[in-house]
Amino acid sequence: MLYEINGPFFFGAAHKLVDVTGKVGMNTRLVIIKMREVPTIDTTGLHHLRTLLKPCRRHGVILYRTEVRPVLLAVLEKSGLADELGNACICKDIQTALRHFQASTANHL
Question: 47 burial class (0-12, 13-18, 19+ CB within 10 angstroms)?
Answer without folding.
Answer: middle
